[in-house]
Amino acid sequence: MRHRVLPALLACAVLSVPAVAVSATAPADAIKYRKAVMAALSNHVSAFMLVNFGKVEHQGHLKAHANAIADLGTQAKVLFPAGTDAGDTDALPLIWKEPDKFRKLLGDLEASSAKLRDAVAANDKPGTLAAFKAMGEACKGCHDRYRKADD
């Protein structure tokens, strides 16, 4: 019996080690991931707007979208690692030339999206609108300066 338990325990220990610890992320994959996270953020903002401004009747979904926006807003600060300035990306090289300015805008996104989440949770309508406006300004400030213009 003891001979069967030890191999099973070893197999569990080996399988529980994350595969990510072994390999580094390729720049192309980091760019794909960045695009996926930003698309998710954009989609949650769109859904939030539809609910919050009364275009659809899913008020019960508002908190979920606000939570997702805050979570994704927090993730944005790690989506622009060195080496992801070239390839299939709309990110301008200026991001890596002005890291302090760029980080400030990402901080603004993180703070405003957290305020949005908190205002929605508190059912604070004026606070929700103020936080949504601040978040929009953070997004616009970043996109205007650090994102390629749409064709």
Task: Provide the number of structural domains.
Answer: 1
Based on Cα principal axes, name the global outline.
Answer: globular
Give the class-level CATH name.
Mainly Alpha
Major beta sheet, specifics?
none
- Rg, alpha carbons: 20 Å
CATH architecture: Up-down Bundle
What's the number of helices?
6
How much is the average pLDDT?
88
The CATH topology is Four Helix Bundle (Hemerythrin (Met), subunit A)
List unreliable stretches of 5+ residues. 8-17
Helix content: 55-70%
Class per helix and strand makeup: mainly alpha
Assigned CATH superfamily: Cytochrome c/b562
Strand content bin = under 5%
Order of helices and strands: HHHHHH
Distance between the termini: 68 Å
Give the number of DSSP strands: 0
Describe this structure in words.
This protein is mostly helical. It has a single domain, classed as Four Helix Bundle (Hemerythrin (Met), subunit A). The protein contains six helices and no strands. It has helices spanning 2-15, 27-52, 62-75, 94-97, 99-121, 125-146. It is globular, with a radius of gyration of 20 Å.
